[in-house]
Amino acid sequence: xxxxxxxxxxxxxxxxxxxxxxxxxxxxxxxxxxxxxxxxxxxxxxxxxxxxxxxxxxxxxxxxxxxxxxxxxxxxxxxxxxxxxxxxxxxxxxxxxxxxxxxxxxxxxxxxxxxxxxxxxxxxxxxxxxxxxxxxxxxxxxxxxxxxxxxxxxxxxxxxxxxxxxxxxxxxxxxxxxxxxxxxxxxxxxxxxxxxxxxxxxxxxxxxxxxxxxxxxxxxxxxxxxxxxxxxxxxxxxxxxxxxxxxxxxxxxxxxxxxxxxxxxxxxxxxxxxxxxxxxxxxxxxxxxxxxxxxxxxxxxxxxxxxxxxxxxxxxxxxxxxxxxxxxxxxxxxxxxxxxxxxxxxxxxxxxxxxxxxxxxxx
Length: 363
Prior knowledge:
Elements: H1 3-43, H2 52-65, H3 72-90, E1 94-98, H4 104-113, E2 118-122, H5 125-134, E3 139-146, E4 150-151, H6 153-160, E5 165-173, E6 177-180, E7 191-194, H7 196-201, H8 203-209, E8 214-217, H9 221-228, E9 234-238, H10 240-246, E10 249-252, E11 262-269, E12 279-288, H11 293-303, E13 308-315, E14 322-330, H12 336-348, E15 351-359
Parallel strand pairs: 1-2, 1-3, 7-8, 7-9
Antiparallel strand pairs: 3-4, 3-11, 5-11, 6-9, 6-10, 12-14, 12-15, 13-14
Helix pairs in contact: 1-3, 2-3, 9-10, 11-12
């Protein structure tokens, strides 16, 4: 009867020994990060400490080498936090995001940069752009499209007047919960707060479960969560971060109508990102309103076998008869076939602006 306990004790001793090894190796990695910081400070005073392409390569390698039992994404998330903490020893990364605190955009920022990054909420998308342009922060995080509701036009419009580049992307799986406070009377909920997009993403569920409840749109889901704290008959649609921030509990979980509901966020900064091995490029192309314009724009992509992943049309601010196309495609601008395609597009378009080449989101 004692053998299982002996085996359990041996396993615990093995775990303790492994923990000691992990602690020692993380400390060694952190010391290496400090040495990197010292070298960069001495030889590259204005050098970039955060390298998106290097981080993407490391995380991809971790996922490729992982043999379980933890799944590859979970392992990559652990390494992301180690890298985030080590980078903070070199130079803490300051990140502006579309606030307030507790939004999905903050969740995307922490998913991409890790918990050791300094995240600062901004009231509007254009304020995120201004903070990065002014050098007050290193990077910004803004939403660009949702799988249910489509593109966020305010973000696309902000790129038209900005010199910032896209340095990365984050795709966040969006789970909406119906949240209540400790004072809410569960059987008396007559008002629900949320962002208009969240209402749209949960419309069928609300129609089925709370058809009589008043739906009150607010500026953000975090604001919805804050309001619920003060009312006994209200609920909010929001995510895990807002629930934790305001101490709310879930009356219902994952109430989004589509199980694949996700939002894509862009990382914006002042740097050009080198090739990582699996990249995406975004650009803005201005075309004159004339017959065959769209065909002329798309033909070089087809001939050079460039995989276009998104095409959005917006009216140009510079002329009534001009249109602007926002395009995402697979590949890096420094790759020969991509460079050749871009040169042809420039000859056919009124204007071409490359917003950036950056690593495809790993997590």
